[in-house]
């Protein structure tokens, strides 16, 4: 028989997180898993009157889990609750495999129905190009201007479609290959790696940034160093990246071209949307973006096709044809 503390919810949450860490997940992903697990665990502790270190995981009934999720969902969005549900579903799946519980109770715990996510690229046909030109010209106001770094960050987001967490995880050594055949090695969600081709123009922008970085800090750049850093040569972080993108759009006078709920991710969506517009298949988009499901990539193609039809329908010539084909004519 396992000791009481070894059977507790708190214990198995830590074991599960260690299991996830062994899969080499990104730090932000691990943090999100922990938040989802501890948030509902706190509700379970309140409902049962027992701390998570004293609450045996095999005593969590569907009834108490349903109540905990209802309380958790009260002040959160449907997408947030769905993500938490998925985390706990994975947690109980792990416990079943480990022989800790006999079945997965999450299958009878309701979760919100969420509408399929709609891509939110930057609005305006010339927005990406105007943004890059503005940043390259050093228009963005900053205490310690570094337009070469800003341009490299934005260009990498727009030309590779990497997620913000993936960009922040890049190392100097993530750039591999010779000039003219450069690739960017990215560690994506779930520890899955992918390789993205780097065209000469983007390679030149990144190399120029690295030269200015050497000039600023006077050091060699080991492959293990973060690729993108702040003005103190500390690794660029999520808040700094969000600020850089927001201020760059503001400097370009294009803050209104970012749809609600998107910021850094809008650049990824722009990359994917342009791939779809240029005829890339769902499989090609999925490979470049690191999508686990091809359905996610198909969304960009579907949206592009719909936008094209709306544009065609807006042509005034069609209204004339409608009048001419009317039975009254």
Percent strand: under 5%
Q: Quick one: biggest sheet?
A: 3 strands, antiparallel
Helical content band: 55-70%
Instruction: Kindly report the spatial arrangement of strands forming the biggest sheet.
Output: 1-2-3
Secondary structure layout plus pairing:
Blueprint (H helix, E strand, L loop, with lengths): L8 H14 L4 H22 L13 H12 L4 H20 L29 H10 L10 H14 L3 H6 L5 E2 L5 E6 L5 E6 L1 H18 L20 H14 L12 H14 L4 H8 L4 H20 L2 H9 L5
Antiparallel strand pairs: 1-2, 2-3
Could you please describe the fold and organization of this structure?
The chain is mostly helical and 329 residues long. It folds into two domains: 4-108, DNA polymerase, domain 1 (Orthogonal Bundle), CATH 1.10.150; 127-260, Intergrase catalytic core (hpI Integrase, Chain A). The chain is 55% helix and 4% strand. The chain has helices at 9-22, 27-48, 62-73, 78-97, 127-136, 147-160, 164-169, 200-217, 238-251, 264-277, 282-289, 294-313, 316-324; strands spanning 175-176, 182-187, 193-198. Strand 1 (175-176) and strand 2 (182-187) form a beta hairpin. Helix 1 runs antiparallel to helix 2, helix 6 runs antiparallel to helix 8 and helix 11 (282-289) packs across helix 12.
